[in-house]
Amino acid sequence: MGAQRQLIIAIMVAIISVGGAAAALYQIQRKESSFETYRNTQFSFEIKYPEGWRRGTPKEENIIVELTSPKEEISFHVGAYEAKEVITLEHLKELNSEVLLTREDNGPPVSVESTDIELAGLPAFRVLTKDKTGSVNMVITALAGQIIYVLQYKYYPDTPKKLIKATEKIVSSFALAQDN
After folding, report:
1. What's phi and psi for 90, nearest 5 deg?
2. What percent helix, strand, coil does the chain show, rounded to 5?
3. How many CB atoms lie within 10 A of CB 30?
4. Which residues of 55-72 are buried (b: 16+ CB within 10 A; e: fewer)?
5. What tens digit of pLDDT does each residue of 90-126 get?
6. What does the domain layout of the chain look like in residue ranges?
7. In the CATH hierarchy, which top-level class contains the domain 35-176?
8. pTM here?
9. Per-residue pLDDT tens for 28-41?
């Protein structure tokens, strides 16, 4: 009777373990599949964004795709355009600084933090600004030859952290399309 009980316990543990592993695998697949992909052939890039986010029609000329969280706590834009003349990342940083100083929506930012980074393997820089209302504006600019990519999002102090993390996943999903 003792050996049979141990066998039953061992089988139950195995079933529970397999069930738990299957559930974990399902969760991983579900998390991966809960993102949609936007591809742009003109500027050869793609990004992934969470299901439930709305993809809207951009209102500005160089904005390629506009994404908004379900309750509109975060707006996310990807812009791209081809520079008409040779440009460097340093020149783009200078231009970005000029734009920051002339903002009119909530006045000039009260804090500015600029960091050199990479975006999809490209040289890039990130500028994080906070205005007097406490809203945060993140702009990431990358340069691929003469193509300038700009990823921008804005959020407010009361924005849920999970939405900010989702936005960071959108940024990290940015990829240049591979030539076949």
Report:
1. -60, -40
2. 30, 35, 30
3. 9
4. eeeeeeeebbbbbbbeee
5. 888 888 777 766 655 656 677 788 889 999 999 999 9
6. 1-33, 35-176
7. alpha beta
8. 0.76
9. 444 455 999 999 99
